[in-house]
Amino acid sequence: MQQIPAKIPQAITEKDLIRRAKQNDYEAFEELVRRNQARIYNLGLKLLGNREDAADLLQDTFLRAYNALQQFEEKSAFSTWLYRIATNLAFMKMRKKKLPMAHFTNPKGDGDASFTPEYPDWSKNPKADLENQELKALLEESIAMLPGKYRTVFILHDIEGFSTQEIGRMLNLSNSAVKSRVHRSRLFLRDKLSQYFHAGAKAGVN
Amino acid sequence: MKCCDDFKELISLYLDGELGGSLLSALEEHFAKCEHCVATCRTVKKTIVLSRQYFRLQYRAVPKAVSERVFFTLRVRYHRK
Asked: Which of A36, A71, A96, B66 fits A55 for a cystine, CB–CB 3.0-4.6 Å?
């Protein structure tokens, strides 16, 4: 296999590339792949948590994008459209692989069920830093424990910076469903980290 | 505390700047007298910051072999010459 060299100058806008790709200019489509592959690969890593699945997701996303290109109406950014394809494919993958759905105790948002004990404010604790390998490992583990539909919305909103409305359109969810999933995910992760600091405080190490 | 649970439900909207009017005033009044909810708000915010940092550290370039496979597969499927 040979690395295919870029033939299209960076100065050509994405809009032009899309127009050309829609007219069956294959090189323009390849340039769109080249410009967007890193963000889709990294989205795959975040959502699916391993390189093999992220690589498959990258390929499947562009295979589908090629087939569906004529349907792209350019109402959103091309990357947003790709994210939509990728997140929906990632969901299918999560369902097939039965990625973790357990351990999430309060997904419904019931007020009483979501009650958590009072934790002290650890936000300024010097150990609340990713240099702290224990905390980093705990955060990684806790993110992996989030059920797929929560993890996806959390990542799109809090990490990728998409708006509630954009995520709603991407995943066919109401704005309130998006907001609720973001909130539940944040509380879940925050409670996991709080328990760590709480246990540390009790043991006198934090 | 049921009362705190109700306010806790508003914390994400507050952090995202989506809370206004009487709900915002009610939450701010509550913060003034409830250390627990202030701690919740600050630690949720810190959790978001740590999560962003975590994923920034995880960023990877697409491995050359993976990228080549994508271009190859696309060419085989869609660009037979």
From this structure: B66
